[in-house]
């Protein structure tokens, strides 16, 4: 795929760096592209460019800002095949899934193009005849986004869409594992004529050094981060000195609850959708599948039967539904979780080892795996696996499984399947998670608020709530009304 450049202050440039880094295709373990490794000086230049144009961008009318988002979304749809191919090559997910992500990513630009027009204020009744109370909303200022590798397009637009709509400039620091999708989107925004400096994309391998420039600069007023809880805590500490506003979408450990009155075929279909999307490398992937004991055998048989034929291979090949994991450390973690579970009594019903694709690839492939009779002593019930492993845990009562589901420091997403309407509402209130899929294994959408509780983060992305993260509320007390 050749050579890429940084996008700094509205210009494609090699930047100040003197060394290159390569982007590795996880299906082949071969370099697919290269670009100059960004330095702190590059990040500082991007911030300076954003500061210079911030006031002008904030003062544009909402319909003008919305136009850039709408045009960019249109080009994303037109170029979906190309963008998806780039994504598959750098991240690994099957091409059909990558096309789905491109369209999902574009939907955030479309949504926030509309929300730009709906940043409303208030007039509040006063206690005094000679005063009026008004509330207006203004952009917070220069913002930054630090995004992960597992959704290299959607995690950007989910942050960039509301920032631009609200009138904020943004610097994006994508994962060094998947910078190409971010730079492809920079090309699109450059083509639609986004004013120079409103967007920069700075790609480098020294993430702490680049993030430090962002966190130390008082002019950057908000940072949105998607990634691990450990890094999120570091950013919280760093944000304290400049009192930056933060949105943090951090780790999860999603429970997937199946009750005996559930539609089991639907539950299995949704479990696979949740578990196997992106090879299980998603923060909302079902990590612990709790099934009521009276139906656990039937559910398990159906799940194994559906997962067994899933084809593993290079995501560019037709018929492949399970691509490679992102890097060697990812496959090592999956192996560790599976070996630990089996050593502690779990039954290995499917998979359980690195996959041979039969197509000559030497990439980071792992077989779709099902473990039965998993128990709380196993690492897989305590840590995110981030891989294609379904861990099935039997339970007896509703009260018991609620306790199991909540027994984690994380609280991003949870799923439950039941025909009992009363139970639907009880669990909605009792499960300690920010996102709940009630008979739905794929709840994410641009118009709904995405985010977690507890150690899964702060703030919300998407929906009408998402743009609020990029707005300051100003109160105006106007006196001298009465003559």
From TrEMBL:
GO molecular function: succinate-semialdehyde dehydrogenase (NAD+) activity
Keywords: Oxidoreductase
EC number: 1.2.1.16
Pfam families attached to this UniProt entry: Aldedh
Highest taxon of the lineage: Bacteria
UniProt keyword annotation of Transmembrane present: no
GO terms classed as biological process: gamma-aminobutyric acid catabolic process
Signal peptide range in chain numbering: none
All copies of domain Aldehyde dehydrogenase, residue ranges: 13-476
Enzyme class: oxidoreductase
Family: Belongs to the aldehyde dehydrogenase family.
Protein name: Succinate-semialdehyde dehydrogenase
Organism: Alicyclobacillus ferrooxydans
Lineage: Bacteria, Bacillati, Bacillota, Bacilli, Bacillales
Gene name in the database record: gabD
């Amino acid at each position: 795929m050749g050579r890429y450049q940084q996008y700094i202050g509205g210009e494609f440039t090699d930047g100040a760096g003197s060394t290159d880094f390569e982007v590795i295709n996880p299906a082949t373990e071969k370099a697919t592209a290269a670009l100059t490794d960004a330095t702190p000086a590059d990040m500082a230049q991007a911030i300076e460019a954003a500061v210079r144009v911030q006031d002008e961008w904030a003062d544009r009318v909402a319909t003008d800002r919305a136009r850039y988002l709408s045009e960019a979304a249109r080009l994303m749809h037109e170029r979906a095949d190309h963008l998806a191919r780039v994504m598959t090559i750098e991240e690994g997910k099957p091409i059909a899934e990558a096309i789905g992500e491109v369209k999902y990513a574009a939907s955030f630009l479309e949504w926030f193009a509309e929300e730009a027009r709906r940043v409303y204020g208030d007039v509040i009744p006063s206690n005094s005849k000679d005063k009026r109370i008004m509330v207006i909303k203004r952009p917070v200022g220069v913002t930054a986004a630090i995004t992960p590798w597992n959704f290299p397009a959607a995690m950007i637009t989910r942050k960039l869409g509301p920032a631009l709509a609200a009138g904020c400039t943004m610097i994006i620091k994508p994962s060094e594992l998947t910078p190409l999708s971010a730079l492809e989107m920079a090309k699109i925004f450059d083509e639609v004529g986004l004013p120079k400096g409103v967007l920069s994309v700075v790609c480098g391998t020294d993430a702490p050094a680049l993030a430090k420039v962002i966190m130390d600069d008082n002019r950057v007023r908000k940072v949105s981060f998607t990634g691990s809880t450990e890094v999120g805590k570091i950013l919280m500490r760093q944000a304290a000195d400049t009192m930056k506003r933060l949105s943090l979408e951090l780790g999860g450990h999603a429970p997937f609850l199946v009750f005996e009155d559930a539609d089991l075929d639907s539950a299995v279909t949704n479990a696979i959708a949740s578990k196997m999307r992106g090879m299980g490398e998603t923060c909302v992937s079902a990590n612990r599948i709790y099934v009521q004991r009276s139906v656990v055998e039937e559910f398990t048989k159906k799940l194994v039967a559906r997962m067994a034929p899933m084809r593993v291979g290079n995501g560019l090949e037709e018929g492949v539904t399970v691509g490679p994991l992102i890097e060697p450390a990812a496959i090592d973690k999956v192996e560790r979780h599976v070996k630990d579970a089996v050593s502690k009594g779990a039954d290995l019903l499917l998979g359980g080892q690195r996959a041979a694709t039969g197509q000559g690839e030497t990439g980071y492939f792992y077989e779709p795996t099902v473990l039965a009779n998993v128990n709380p002593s196993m690492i897989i019930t305590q840590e995110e696996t981030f891989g294609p492993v379904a861990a099935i845990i039997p339970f007896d009562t509703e009260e018991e499984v609620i306790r199991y589901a909540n027994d984690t420091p994380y609280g991003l997403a949870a799923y439950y399947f039941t025909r009992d309407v009363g139970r639907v509402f009880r669990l909605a209130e009792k499960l300690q998670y920010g996102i709940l899929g009630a008979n739905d294994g794929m709840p994410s959408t641009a118009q709904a608020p995405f985010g977690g509780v507890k150690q899964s983060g702060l703030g919300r992305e998407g929906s009408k709530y998402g743009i609020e993260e990029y707005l300051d509320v100003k109160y105006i007390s106007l006196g001298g009304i009465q003559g």
